[in-house]
Amino acid sequence: xxxxxxxxxxxxxxxxxxDLRFVDVLGSWRHVTFxxxxxxxxxxxxxxxxxIVLDPFSAPTPSHAILVPQGAANYLDPFTHQPxxxxxxSVQDALLRENSALDSRQVAVQAMQYLESSxxxxxxxxxxxxxxxxxxxxxxxxxxxxxxxxxxxxGPADPDFHLRCEAAEIASEAGLLIERHFSGPxxxxxxxxxxxxxxxxxxxxxxxxYVVSQNARRNRESVSSNNLGLPSQWTISRQGESIFVxxxxxxxxxxxxxxxxxxxxxxxxxxxxxFANAPDVCRSPWLKLCSSDxxxxxxxxxxxxxxxxxxAIEFCGAPAGCNPYLVYSAVLMAMIDGIQNKVSPGxxxxxxxxxxxxxxxxxxxxxxxxxxxxxxxxxxxxxxxDFLMRGEVFSSELIESLSRQLSQD
Length: 409
Prior knowledge:
By secondary structure, this protein is an alpha+beta fold. The protein is built from twelve helices and 14 strands.
């Protein structure tokens, strides 16, 4: 919405306050709340000065910055006593009035600008699958089913159904578009957001996380995401047509295969970005494969319907607690690099394993070890970050920040 439309919306809904939110490099929302009387058209250009911390590892002391509201990124907060509008903000240097190199949301904006400048495509649709687990109060009578066979479970085997339904309804009232929700494996739950642009998808992921956790808290439950993921399904378009659709592997175009090649080529670096702020490194033996039959594959081809145009590439290697702006921007940059350099996925398509040695060749790890240490992740990032820095999408300052995070024990 344009500034005038935002102000009109506030009057229509009787908004009393607005919550200015920005994301730090760890992928966590930070916020400052103002009375709605402070919001004027000029604020969308001039912003609000405030002391903030974007990188707690390198600069834990607050520094002064300008938070600039983004009119197109707003939600209604369904959990406040008075009507409150959530406005996402970009972060600018207070003196230079330039976008901060550590503003994760701006990284996603610049990734989209780089895609358009490359002439490869002019749009991206991303469908995110948000996974979480409800941790119930002991002896509440609503314990989750002990079996791991809970994928698409129904009835008593899906004790979180009503809580998901409630969260989906609240999310819709807040302005989110929920495509579906269901019981996931290992007593988890999944909520799928409708496809949207890269930046909007990342905005929605954080808002949905906020809705799910706040609703669980209101119901005297808590939410965890340990060992869960944030899979995403990707389509790049040009003039409204997907460039991934064709007559090759599983209905993909040659361009789509090159995009997969880029993801597999840079898989170690993508994992470094994804797990930089994770408390522990990935414990799953992820493999540089594109396969629907091997559960550890880092990506696969999604056939969304019988419509031959419904083809997407799914990236499976992001943990649920990652910074989606940085991870998804890195995935897009890897796809662009693969397309520009015509990288072939080669034997990684539908690989069949006959020996343990076969698996080690495709392992995402150091010297064939699928369980990476943080030091190896850091080395991967430093040694293969050039593709991230094209078009000034990732700055050297941001790469250094991620490296410092990976250096933490």
